Structure formats: structure tokens, C-alpha cells
Amino acid sequence: MAFAASTACCKPSALLTPRASSSPLRAQALLFSPSTSTTFRGLRAPASAFGVAPAPRRRAASTGIVCGKVSKGSVPPNFTLKDQDGKTVSLSKFKGKPVVLYFYPADETPGCTKQACAFRDSYEKYKKAGAEVIGISGDDAASHKAFAKKYRLPFTLLSDEGNKVRKEWGVPSDLFGTLPGRQTYVLDKKGVVQYIYNNQFQPEKHIGETLKIIQNL
Predict the structure, then answer these.
(1) Beta bridge partners of 184
(2) N or C: which end of the chain has fewer CB within 10 A?
(3) H or E segment to which residue 104 belongs
(4) 10: which DSSP letter?
(5) How far is CA 176 from CA 12, 68, 146, 179, in A?
(6) pLDDT of 165-188, one tens digit each?
(7) Sign of dihedral through CA atoms 153, 123, 174, 165?
């Protein structure tokens, strides 16, 4: 999947030469306003330039990735969604067994298909370890059903239309917020998050590592 990056062009004289001012600080204020990350016609001023400390960002200890409301060691909020057969499924239903829950952008995209097929090919090993595999995207139940049938996916796909659960869990987006993020969580038998993995462009890489974690829980 290819994305075209856009760039902003502007004349240096228009950006770097403020009106004459009796105060250097006043001239600086014409260019930037103090915020955590300020944009002005394509230029970005760091908050440190104004003595403003950026807000701390929480990270998952296992992977070093930036995460939202759900982090390693936390118990994520429960949810109820429809699966590929139109049946309602709650996360709490799986308590008592390990769960691999992965959010992905969309059915039928190249990366998501590779990821789903990789989980499919290792699914018997996950079952042997007593774990459930669950995929979640914003596609509807009919799309999930067609996707699962085409690629013979033996696990549950849930429909998060409107991305409500994605937002509640704090799954980060990619490409400046234009692409839903690809993030995997491993929950132990008590429903506690033990591992978080995020990589939009290497969707298959974590399958083996995730399985090892499940086998050692």
C-alpha cells in the first residue's frame, strides 16, 4: 500500500522576517505560539524554545512503544461486538484463558491479509497453548465473513464499526492519523496485558514471539 507524502513550500522571507519590533520576544511571538508542538506554515517550533515541558508519554515496558489507555500490566476495558457470523461476543467471555487480540486497519489489504494468514498458520499451536486469537477492525460483519471464508481463517473477527473500542483502548494511528493502527495485545488468564506489539509495516514479524509468550504464561 503506497501513500504520497505532501510537503509545504513557503518563501523564507515570509517566514523568517517578522515586522520590526521593539522587543525580541514580541518578534518571536509573531512566528510561534508556545505549545507542545507548534506548526507555522510548515515550520515546527519545539516547546523547549519557550521553556514549556512536553507532556510525558506512557510507554509499554515490553516493547518501548507509545500506547494509550491500555498498557502492560493493566486490565483493558470490556467490550461487546459482533463477530463474522453476526453473533455478539464479549471480551469477558474469554477470561480464564490467554487471549491474543489484534487490531488491524482493514479486511483484504495486503498487510492485514498477511497478518491474518500468519495467525491462521499458527492457530493450532495457539489452541494447543489454550489461547484464543481475536482480530478487530472497523469493517462490518459481512466483510469479516467474506474475509474469513476466502482465507480460511479459523479464529474470531470482531466488527468495531465507528472504531469505538479502538479509541477506548488508545490504539495509536499511523501516517499522521490517516491510517488505523496495527497493534497486538497478549492478555493472560486473568485478563491482564502482558505484551503489546505495534508495527504497521511488518505485520507477520510478531507471530512467533507472541506464541512464545503465550506458551510461557
Answers:
(1) 102, 197
(2) N
(3) none
(4) -
(5) 25, 16, 30, 8
(6) 999 999 988 777 677 889 999 999
(7) positive
Other beta carbons less than 10 A from residue 156's beta carbon: 20
Closest by alpha carbon to 163, among 147, 140, 192? Answer: 140
Contact 179/200 with Cβ under 8 angstroms? yes
Instruction: Average the pLDDT over 57-77 and give the result.
Output: 63
CA trace torsion 118, 124, 128, 133 (10° rounding): 50
- Answer whether 199's CB lies under 8 Å from 111's CB: no
Radius of gyration of the chain (CA): 22
Count of residues for the chain? Answer: 217
Question: Phi and psi (nearest 5°) for 80?
Answer: -135, 120
pTM for the model: 0.67
Of 76, 77, 75, 57, the residue nearest 67 (C-alpha): 57
Residue where the block lists cell 496495527:
182
> Can 67 be counted among the known catalytic residues?
no
Residue 66 CA to residue 61 CA, distance in Å, equals 10
Instruction: Measure the CA–CA gap between 193 and 101, rounded to whole angstroms.
Output: 10
DSSP character for 136? Answer: E
Catalytic site residue from 10, 67, 112, 117: 112
